[in-house]
Specification:
Layout lengths: L2 H7 L4 H4 L4 E4 L6 E5 L4 H18 L4 H17 L1 H12 L3 H21 L7 E2 L6 E9 L2 E5 L7 H12 L4 E4 L5 H18 L8 E3 L4 H9 L3 E7 L2 H13 L3 E5 L4 E5 L5 H13 L9 E7 L3 H13 L19 H16 L3 E3 L3 E2 L9 E2 L2 E4 L15 E7 L2 H9 L3 E2 L1 E5 L3 H8 L8 E4 L11 E2 L2 E2 L6 E2 L8 E9 L15
Parallel strand pairs: 5-6, 5-8, 6-7, 8-9, 10-11, 10-18, 11-16, 15-16, 18-19
Antiparallel strand pairs: 1-2, 3-4, 4-23, 12-15, 13-14, 17-21, 20-22
Helix pairs in contact: 1-5, 3-9, 4-6, 4-8, 5-6, 5-8, 6-7, 11-12
The structure holds 2-aminohexanedioic acid.
Organism: Leisingera caerulea (Phaeobacter caeruleus)
Family: Belongs to the aldehyde dehydrogenase family.
Pfam families: Aldedh
């Protein structure tokens, strides 16, 4: 399908796609697909003011009714799954199957949030005083600013927005400047859902800001943005956290990962092989959950690694829109440079690199296709402590599980992790307090491809935030402790006497 048809099918008009200063190129072939008009910081401030006034009425709409808006959003997304999935592929380069998967994540979180809209439960608490009742109430918090990255241009917005909306919070989205088109297409889908919902969806409830970093800074600077949920690099997260700490605003941070798999002697190597390839080369190694470090027991190293190298050699690399492609392009030339220099460092640190060179340079001179790389390392060297957003899989040997877990936990990031083993003593140990230090720890599946039902996020430099399922909704509400005295006395807590 020509690029212009993909844009049109996603509802984007020529008038919107031209005449602005933000040039959008597709990583598929490096060609320009739009010049978008950007928002000014004054417009960002106007959006913040509109959200503030939307909050006044939205917080009073009963939560199950707020859920109805998210149900309608899920319905619209179901209708648009292919069109939006294809646009995701065109704009960020992940293969079409993964583009569809990303839209499916949006649909799934909408379903989850609809159910949640009737389950924003608080506690009742035993009071120490006679004739007193205590409880905990959850109230809407205020506007939620959502900052997202190019690699998952739409799903993380929805993990945040679906929850924030049922929790009573307006949302303002600042997408990556590399992927603004998917954000515009989603905004249109939201507008249809709001129109179907009717009058109690106030103006300013769901908004999007197109442009550069200054717009994100307008969100972090404003006391009228109660929460910032940011997905992206560690430096971006540190900048957001620093700004937000100045006004003690709430953050939900989902930053870098440096995810490992331990392959133990008892592992099912067929399964491990498939899991390794999907999690290391899926999205061309540009997921925050991508597998980056493979820690393999020395007894099975020679059975697994040659097969893995062979599997890499046969990977179909190319147009992510074409059937059968498994590895699409990197986002841009800068990503290719970062990959090349990481591999040079790996070699300088004693590594042996397989693959890792540029692919399709003749047919796609303006795009950044690569052969995914495997780097066999003598130990967990310095380069392995950093996250390079590219398909590089570092491989090291281990001899004892404690040493493997120590290596797995040694890096500054703490998002996802996994072990392949059929020995329950090993797998339970890996999940125990002495095991993985990550927010996600899996057994016999790879580190990527989390379902929306669980809380998503991780520790250390990953930022500590949790999004998506479980009780992540609490991050979008304020907790209020209520004590009600229904007696005719006024006993004080802690038995204090204070007679006047
Ligand atoms: C990301 O890369 O920012 O677990 C998110 C996964 C996906 C989400 C990745 N569900 O791989």
């Amino acid at each position: 399908m020509p690029h212009s048809d993909i844009l049109a099918a996603a509802g984007l008009t020529q008038a919107e796609l031209t005449g602005g200063s933000l040039t959008v190129t597709t990583p598929v072939d490096g060609s320009e697909i739009a010049r978008l008009k950007t928002h000014s910081t004054a417009e960002a401030e106007a959006q913040i003011a509109a959200a503030k006034s939307a909050f006044k009425s939205w917080r009073l709409v009963p939560a199950p009714r707020r859920g109805e808006l998210v149900r309608l959003l899920g319905d619209e997304l179901r209708k648009e799954k292919e069109n939006l999935g294809r646009l995701v592929t065109l704009e960020c380069g992940k293969i079409y199957q993964e583009g569809l998967g990303e839209v499916q994540e949006m649909i799934d979180i909408c379903d989850f949030a609809v159910g949640l809209s009737r389950q924003l439960y608080g506690l009742t608490i035993a009071s120490e005083r006679p004739g007193h009742a205590m409880r905990e109430s959850w109230h809407p918090m205020g506007t939620c600013g959502i900052i997202t990255a190019f690699n998952f241009p739409v799903a993380p917005w929805c993990w945040n927005a679906a929850l924030a909306l049922v929790c009573g919070d307006p949302v303002i989205w600042k997408p990556s400047e590399k992927t603004p088109l998917t954000a515009l297409a989603v905004q249109k889908i939201c507008e249809r859902a709001m129109a179907a919902f009717g009058d109690d969806a106030p103006e300013g409830l769901i908004q999007v800001l197109i442009g550069e970093r200054d717009l994100g800074e307008a969100l972090t600077a404003s006391k009228d943005v109660a929460i910032i949920s940011a997905t992206g690099s560690v430096p971006m997260g540190k900048a957001v956290a620093a700004d937000m700490s100045k006004r003690l605003g709430r953050t939900i941070l989902e930053l870098g990962g440096n995810n490992a798999m331990i392959v133990a002697p008892s592992a099912d190597l067929e399964m491990a092989l498939r899991a390794i390839v999907f999690s290391a080369v899926g999205t061309a190694g540009q997921r925050c959950t991508s597998l980056r470090r493979l820690i393999v027991h020395e007894d099975i190293y020679d059975q697994l690694i040659p097969r893995l190298i062979k599997a890499y050699e046969g990977l179909p690399i190319g147009d992510p829109l074409a059937d059968g492609t498994l590895v699409g392009p990197l986002i841009d030339g800068a990503a290719l440079d970062a990959m090349t220099s990481a591999l040079e460092r790996a070699q300088a640190e004693g590594g042996t690199v397989h693959g890792g060179t540029r692919a399709l340079a003749d047919s796609h001179a303006d795009a950044a296709y690569v052969h995914p790389a495997i780097a066999e390392m003598p130990a967990q060297t310095a380069i392995m402590h950093t996250e390079t957003f590219a398909p590089i899989l570092y491989v090291v040997k281990y001899s004892d599980l404690d040493q493997a877990i120590e290596m797995q936990n040694e890096v500054p990031q703490g998002l996802s992790s996994c072990i392949f083993s059929t020995d329950v003593r090993e797998t339970e140990y890996f999940l125990s307090a002495a095991g993985s230090d990550c927010g996600i720890a899996n057994v016999n599946i790879g580190p990527s491809g989390a379902e929306i039902g669980g809380a998503f996020g991780g520790e250390k430099e990953t930022g500590g935030g949790r999004e998506s399922g479980s009780d992540a909704w609490k991050g979008y509400m304020r907790r209020q402790t209520n004590t009600v005295n229904y007696s005719r006395e006024l006993p004080l807590a802690q038995g204090i006497k204070f007679d006047i």
